[in-house]
Write a sequence for this structure.
């Protein structure tokens, strides 16, 4: 930090020195930039030498005089090899300073980068800041923008980043904090807050004065302090300004306080740290690099750790990385053998002093390189030995790890992105409009000032006897100059400061509505919806793109065995007595598994016919579940007898093994050579001969086992498209039936697998296993050889149960004296074919269907959001097949689409070709030279371009893999990606990293004029949540990182439609109505002063009473507009959800934009003309009924302000769509308060008490008692309101908007009884299938066969404890 301050200070000194320096230096220097860099290096080096004792001193020859240990030979070579540049030294450095060694340092400035880095300094890669102009030489003091605060902030931020980014290699020692502290590595504390106690006031005020209006009002306050031009009291600006700053400051303080609380919660989590030979409980934030910590099962990983040892065999550790990459399958990490020996021996762990050298902190989740040096030996480190922050320890009793990266240096935080200050599109528009208003204000003031100069020159100069010029004014032009600033003060109400107070109140109120909404409350875990920020509500009503995570956001992370197909029969559906399929709900009777004491009590199944088939000893059913209990890589854990816990690499695989367990085939234990299964109460030990593991190419796995009877069997499960190619041709009949079932399962969004088995000949297997051993030990082509062997033994799978059995099927019909059916003939013929082709009996057993449980209401929510013209992109770390399957499950993808493009190119050219082919199919005209976008890009420069929306010739989807996405996000392809993807209705990006998620969101923000929303639940979603305009976190899950970084949070994805279609749309409409009305009423109010200037000699005389000016925005008109902005709704929440089309105008920004603002401005100008000239004409030479004149200034002012207030009250009545008691009270109450205050302030009593303050004595009772005055008021109201009413009526009749049409439908629908709720379709079929109950990576087969992850055999694993066919458990129907 000292170095950072030093560098900033040196930068300033250098600029100052350059401004007075000699030009010779620049002329002799190779380039001005080099000269600046060299000079900066020089000054920093000199100051560092004085400040830091470890910096070497250079002698007269330019050599280091430091001790030998302080300078490496490499550094010495670097210093000696530097070319002196003495001729470039300024003359002022040529004499006295030479003895100090400064010139020598300067001469070596080109080598300082390596030199400074070598001595641990942070001054590497020194360069001048680009924020100071460096084009003109010599430097001039006037060219240096020292007064620009933004420059200093940019310098400070860049120096901080520079100090963080100079680390190129990390070096640390275990259990040596003193050694590690010298590198100043970050500790493990996390900071998401913006302020602290000391910085809050200056930083918050600085942020608030970046808002143009606040700076403008500060400027007005300064003007009002000048007596010559002040036409209003200074406190009229101070009080509102302080109020605005206070309200915004308190809100920001509350938000930041909540961030502090969240940070404190995370930083204060306990963890066990090894200190002085003892495990001591420390807070997370106190953990430092080099510490050894102990983690236990289900603990979050504290920092990025090097795994040292664990409770598992061979120091394996199982982790879940859902928070990092969205994958729910378990991954396994293994420690080095040399550290695994440490175990949990605290003495050995304390004495461990290994030294780590590794890469600098980075965001690559799948990459780590480093070395461990221990007792003189070096050991390679890679990502397989790292436990990253954000992971969770699973199925591992304990493990020890060495902290490598902590806090902000962890890979999780490196992927989190920067917290940016988010502003709504309306905020940005308002800034532009405020500038327009300022220009309009300056124009009006200029006109009035010129008018004043002309009037004073022509008339005022000769009228000074009656109206003398102010002191110091000696010319008409000077008078006009002063009047310009006087009118700036008077007319400043075109942008009233109360506008911003009201905006904050409206946003706060609408945020409370979200917090209080019971329909967004999730009772199961007591989680309400929460608006974590109060500044983005109306942005919720303009969302065009939603970027959603999959795991934990769309799904529940729960896999359930839902249905299956066995030997051509489908199981899982429930039918009533009439044979009609019924929908399964919480009232449906579950299958009773009480006969099985080893069953999982959480497992639920509803089709009783399947358990009956099991109990009837159906051969095919038994084989089916036997396969599921044997063909997997699951690890069992049984700490207490009967209490089985499965450790599955994939949740799909765990669901299949659990299903087999409940149906009587209990996987109990495994060793590297055996698998123990309790089959229908009988314990059987199968010999495990081989595991043919899963990978992404094979898409299947097989096991070869030997039964206790000595039979050799290969069991296989995998994707239907893959296994069907391996089946014997005789399987066609059963294949067709199974395919029908697969289509039905896929149509319901289930994840499907096909299962088959094959009996093996012993002699053939012995030959195959010999060749398998040779292939597995081959040095070249090992993978290809193994794949060939796997395919050889897996092919020719058959459906035949046994040729003899199937040939006997004809005996039954012949015995019953009937003709055999087609199916029976088919079995017979196939059996004959099977006997002639092979003596091995095999069978296609059927298929499984697993439900990846979606969160409740996800398909309906997505369907509703699609009707609102919102495009949904799914960004997931999951694999392609799973992501696509979920896409179909939740109605993102469907078979009615024209096409779903798969982008999986492995090179940049391949990706480009695939993207262009997709775009060509969707819109062939987009490649023509006449295409609008092509023309735009040919004409425009290379600057940022906004792409207009393009319409495809149908409905399409796009799926792109993370590898291809990496190419597509490159500069030359990103435009092609965004054009192609944005034409699709749905985009699914799979296998993406957290950083890629943020890059995709940023890409759409860059090229599309659209509001984006990102929603997720894990730490891997934080980056995109921060990047999007709106970030939504799903709370209630294990991790809370996404919620802590979000703007809004709730517990279920289905609440998103209510957040957008109800709260978002209402907030947007309310804010738009508020702004339109506010600008209108203030233009109408302020421009009356402008017209009055032409009749008052341009003297900056106000029309209204000063008290009316003060109270107009604060009292008289504030509550009615707040009432409308907090309670108004065009339709209620039910109709908002039923008609999502109402959301579209917000996306198109139709309710408030520049055109609408101009209309408000013109309406305000028109109203101001009416409000000035009607009262002026009515008062001109008019008489009271008693003959006395009322044509005086005070009567005119009272009449004008009364007309104004009634007109704006009627206008807000026209703008209000939803009337409540509150609205009525605010409008009528404000009018009543106006008349009460007016009659009170203009009374005789107030005049006698405060004579100077209330000069309008008696005006109210004298003026408002006259009928002609009220007639003029009525005329003013009619002329102001009638055009508005007429325009709205004609527009709705002649040119209705889509919103008007929907509102008309709603009015008609309200008159009819509500239609019955549509019944859910119970079944749909699909031609696509997905079947991947495997992990996303290579399976655990090799690990299991090696035995490295095996514990000693469980004492309970060899005992059978039940029999389903015993009298106690016999089925009632048997």
């Amino acid at each position: 930090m000292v170095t950072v301050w030093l560098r900033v200070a040196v930068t300033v000194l250098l600029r100052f020195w350059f401004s007075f320096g000699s030009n010779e230096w620049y002329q002799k220097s190779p380039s001005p930039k080099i000269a600046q860099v060299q000079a900066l290096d020089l000054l920093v080096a000199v100051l560092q030498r004085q400040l830091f004792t470890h910096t070497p001193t250079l002698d007269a020859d330019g050599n280091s005089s430091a001790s030998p240990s302080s300078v490496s030979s490499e550094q010495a070579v670097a210093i000696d090899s530097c070319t002196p540049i003495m001729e470039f030294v300024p003359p002022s450095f040529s004499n006295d300073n030479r003895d100090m060694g400064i010139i020598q340092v300067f001469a070596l400035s080109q080598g300082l980068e390596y030199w400074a880095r070598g001595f641990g300094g942070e001054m590497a890669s020194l360069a001048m800041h680009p924020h100071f102009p460096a084009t003109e030489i010599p430097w001039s003091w006037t060219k240096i923008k020292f007064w620009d605060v933004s420059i200093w902030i940019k310098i400070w931020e860049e120096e901080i980043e520079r100090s963080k980014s100079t680390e190129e290699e990390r070096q640390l020692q275990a259990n040596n904090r003193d050694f590690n502290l010298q590198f100043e590595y970050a500790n493990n504390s996390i900071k998401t807050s913006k302020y602290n106690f000391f910085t809050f006031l200056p930083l918050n005020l600085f942020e608030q004065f970046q808002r143009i209006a606040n700076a403008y009002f500060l400027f007005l306050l300064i003007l009002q302090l000048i007596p010559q031009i002040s036409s209003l009291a200074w406190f009229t600006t101070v009080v509102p300004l302080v109020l605005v700053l206070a309200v915004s400051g308190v809100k920001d303080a509350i938000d930041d306080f909540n961030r502090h609380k969240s940070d404190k919660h995370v930083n204060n989590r306990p963890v066990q740290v090894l200190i002085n030979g003892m495990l001591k409980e420390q807070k997370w934030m106190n953990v430092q690099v080099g510490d050894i910590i102990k983690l236990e099962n289900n603990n979050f990983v504290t920092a990025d750790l090097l795994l040292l040892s664990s409770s598992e065999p061979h120091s394996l550790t199982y982790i879940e990385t859902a928070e990092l990459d969205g994958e729910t399958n378990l991954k396994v990490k293994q420690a080095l053998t040399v550290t695994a020996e440490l175990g949990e021996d605290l003495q050995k762990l304390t004495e461990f002093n290994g030294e780590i050298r590794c890469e600098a902190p980075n965001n690559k989740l799948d990459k780590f390189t480093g070395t461990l040096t221990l007792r003189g030996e070096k050991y390679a480190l890679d990502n397989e030995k790292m436990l990253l922050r954000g992971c969770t320890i699973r199925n591992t009793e304990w493990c020890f790890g060495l902290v490598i990266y902590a806090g902000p240096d962890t890979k999780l935080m490196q992927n989190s992105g920067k917290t940016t200050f988010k502003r709504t599109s309306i905020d940005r528009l308002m800034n532009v409009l405020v500038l327009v208003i300022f220009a309009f204000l300056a124009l009006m003031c200029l006109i009035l000032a010129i008018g004043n100069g002309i009037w004073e020159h022509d008339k005022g100069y000769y009228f000074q006897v009656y109206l003398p010029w102010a002191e110091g004014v000696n010319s008409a032009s000077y008078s006009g100059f002063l009047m310009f600033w006087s009118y700036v003060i008077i007319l400043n109400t075109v942008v009233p400061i109360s506008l911003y107070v009201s905006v904050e109140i409206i946003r706060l109120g609408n945020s409370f509505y979200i917090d209080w909404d019971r329909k967004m409350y999730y009772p199961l875990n007591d989680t309400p919806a929460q608006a974590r920020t109060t500044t983005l509500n109306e942005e919720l009503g303009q969302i065009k793109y939603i970027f959603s995570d999959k795991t934990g956001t769309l799904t529940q992370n729960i896999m359930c065995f839902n249905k299956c197909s066995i030997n051509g029969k489908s199981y899982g559906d429930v039918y009533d007595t009439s044979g009609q399929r019924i929908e399964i709900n919480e009232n449906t009777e579950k299958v009773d598994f009480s006969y099985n004491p080893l069953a999982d009590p959480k497992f639920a199944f509803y089709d009783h016919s399947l358990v009956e088939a099991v109990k009837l000893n159906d051969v095919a059913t038994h084989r089916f579940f036997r396969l599921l209990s044997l063909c997997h890589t699951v690890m069992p854990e049984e700490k207490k007898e009967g209490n089985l816990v499965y450790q599955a690499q994939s949740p799909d695989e765990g669901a299949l093994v659990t299903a087999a367990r409940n149906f009587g085939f209990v996987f109990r234990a495994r060793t590297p050579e055996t698998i123990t299964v309790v089959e229908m109460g009988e314990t059987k030990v199968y010999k495990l001969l081989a595991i043919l593991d899963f990978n992404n190419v094979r898409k299947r796995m097989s096991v070869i086992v030997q039964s206790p009877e000595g039979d050799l069997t290969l069991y296989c499960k995998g994707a239907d498209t893959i296994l069907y190619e391996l089946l014997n041709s005789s399987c066609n009949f059963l294949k067709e039936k199974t395919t029908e079932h697969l289509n039905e399962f896929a149509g319901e969004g289930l994840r499907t697998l096909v299962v088959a088995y094959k009996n093996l000949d012993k002699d053939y297997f012995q030959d195959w296993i010999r060749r398998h051993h040779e292939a597995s030990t081959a040095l070249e082509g090992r993978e290809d050889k193994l794949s060939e062997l796997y395919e050889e033994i897996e092919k020719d799978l058959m459906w035949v149960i046994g040729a003899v059995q199937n040939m006997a099927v004809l005996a039954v019909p012949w015995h019953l004296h009937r003709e055999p059916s087609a199916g029976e003939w088919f079995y017979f013929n196939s059996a004959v074919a099977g006997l002639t082709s092979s003596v091995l009996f095999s069978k296609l057993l059927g298929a499984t269907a697993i439900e990846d449980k979606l969160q409740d209401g996800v398909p309906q929510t997505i369907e509703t959001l699609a009707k609102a013209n919102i495009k949904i992109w799914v960004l997931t770390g999951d694999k392609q097949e799973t992501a696509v399957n979920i896409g179909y499950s939740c109605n993102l993808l469907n078979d009615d689409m024209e096409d779903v493009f798969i982008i999986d190119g492995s090179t940049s050219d391949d990706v480009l070709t695939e993207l262009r082919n997709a775009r060509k199919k969707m819109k062939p005209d987009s490649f023509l030279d006449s295409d609008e976008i092509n023309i735009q890009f040919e004409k425009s420069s290379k600057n940022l371009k906004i792409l207009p929306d393009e319409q495809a010739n149908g409905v399409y989807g796009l799926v792109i893999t993370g590898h291809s996405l990496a190419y597509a996000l490159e500069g030359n392809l990103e435009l092609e990606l965004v054009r192609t993807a944005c034409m699709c209705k749905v985009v699914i990006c799979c296998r993406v990293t957290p950083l890629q998620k943020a890059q995709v969101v940023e890409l759409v923000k860059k090229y599309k004029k659209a509001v984006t929303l990102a929603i997720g639940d894990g730490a891997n979603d934080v980056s995109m949540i921060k990047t999007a305009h709106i970030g939504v976190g799903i709370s209630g899950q294990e991790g809370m990182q996404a919620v802590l970084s979000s703007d809004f949070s709730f517990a279920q994805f289905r609440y998103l439609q209510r957040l957008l279609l109800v709260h978002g749309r209402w907030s947007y409409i309310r804010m738009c109505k508020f702004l339109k009305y506010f600008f209108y009423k203030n233009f109408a109010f302020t421009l009356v002063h402008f017209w009055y200037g032409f009749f008052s000699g341009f003297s900056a005389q106000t029309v209204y009473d000063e008290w009316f000016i003060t109270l107009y925005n604060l009292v008289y008109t504030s509550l009615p507009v707040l009432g409308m902005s907090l309670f108004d709704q065009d339709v209620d929440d039910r109709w908002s959800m039923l008609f999502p089309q109402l959301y579209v105008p917000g996306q198109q920004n139709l309710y408030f934009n520049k055109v609408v603002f101009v209309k408000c401005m013109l309406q305000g100008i028109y109203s101001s003309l009416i409000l000035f000239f009607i009262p002026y004409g009515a008062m001109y030479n008019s008489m009271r009924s008693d003959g006395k004149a009322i044509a005086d200034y005070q009567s005119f002012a009272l009449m004008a302000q009364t007309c104004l207030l009634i007109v704006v009250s009627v206008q807000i009545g026209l703008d209000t769509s939803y009337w409540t008691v509150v609205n009525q009270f605010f409008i009528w109450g404000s009018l009543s308060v106006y008349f009460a205050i007016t009659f009170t302030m203009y009374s005789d009593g107030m005049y006698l008490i405060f004579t100077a303050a209330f000069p309008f004595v008696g005006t109210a009772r004298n003026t408002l008692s006259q009928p002609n005055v009220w007639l003029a008021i009525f005329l003013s109201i009619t002329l102001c309101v009638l055009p508005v009413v007429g325009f709205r009526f004609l527009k709705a009749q002649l040119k209705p908007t889509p919103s008007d049409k929907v509102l008309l439908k709603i009015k008609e629908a309200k008159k009819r009884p509500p239609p019955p709720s549509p019944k859910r379709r119970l079944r749909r079929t699909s031609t696509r299938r997905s079947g991947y109950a495997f992990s996303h990576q290579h399976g655990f087969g090799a690990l299991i066969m090696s035995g490295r992850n095996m514990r000693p055999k469980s004492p309970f694993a060899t005992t059978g404890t039940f029999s389903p066919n015993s009298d106690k458990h016999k089925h009632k129907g048997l």
Notes: The first helix runs from residue 2 to 20. The mean pLDDT is 77.
